[in-house]
């Protein structure tokens, strides 16, 4: 019985991984609350999405966004963070209050459901370029400098 459950769980794990979106896929509009409990929307005008699933990727994005002067940031840029792996008490009482000190807003996927199909690599930040909900490119970066360079090309 345990062997059957193990095989079934492996099947579901590989199925979930197979559903990650890729270049030329269309994504759905996304609305998440930011750290100020305001809606952050990825809509048809959004061209660049910065995405992090882990703390290290989030640090790279934070450093990149703090390094770019406000007047040089693309208007149609959104930052989304999957914080579902963070214990809810830590998120509520430590992490989110610290996020409120940041000079930019970030959509927070607290349950991990909205971004479950989003591509991400461990300890990296993901930059997704969109054209009216169509994925133009997906790149993973392991430094804030590389993210700044990628954003400046948009």
Q: Which properties best describe this structure?
A:
five-stranded mixed sheet, 154 residues, alpha/beta, signal, 7 strands, disordered N terminus, FAD/FMN-containing dehydrogenase
Short description:
By secondary structure, the chain is of the alpha/beta class. It is built from 4 helices and 7 strands; from the N terminus they run H-E-E-E-H-E-H-E-E-E-H.
Tell me about this structure:
It is a single chain. The chain contains four helices and seven strands. It has 154 residues and is of the alpha/beta class. It has a five-stranded mixed sheet. A two-stranded antiparallel ribbon has the order 1-2. Strand 3, helix 2 (55-67) and strand 4 form a beta-alpha-beta unit. Helix 2 packs across helix 4. The protein is globular, with a radius of gyration of 16 Å. Mean pLDDT is 88; it is low at 1-18. Keywords: Signal. This is FAD/FMN-containing dehydrogenase. Residues 1-18 form the signal peptide. It comes from Shewanella electrodiphila.
């Amino acid at each position: 019985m345990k062997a059957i459950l193990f095989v079934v769980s492996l099947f579901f794990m590989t199925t979930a991984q197979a559903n990650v979106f890729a270049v030329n896929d269309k994504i759905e509009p996304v609305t998440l609350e930011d750290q100020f409990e305001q809606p952050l929307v990825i809509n048809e005008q959004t061209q660049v999405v910065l995405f992090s699933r882990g703390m290290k990727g989030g640090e790279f994005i934070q450093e990149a966004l703090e390094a770019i002067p406000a007047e040089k940031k693309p208007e149609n840029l959104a930052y989304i963070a999957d914080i579902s792996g963070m214990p809810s008490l830590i998120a509520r009482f430590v992490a989110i209050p610290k996020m409120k000190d940041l000079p930019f807003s970030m959509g927070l996927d607290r349950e991990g459901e909205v971004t479950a199909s989003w591509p991400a690599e461990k300890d990296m930040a993901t930059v997704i370029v969109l054209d009216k909900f169509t994925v133009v490119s997906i790149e993973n970066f392991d430094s804030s400098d590389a993210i700044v360079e990628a954003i400046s090309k948009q």
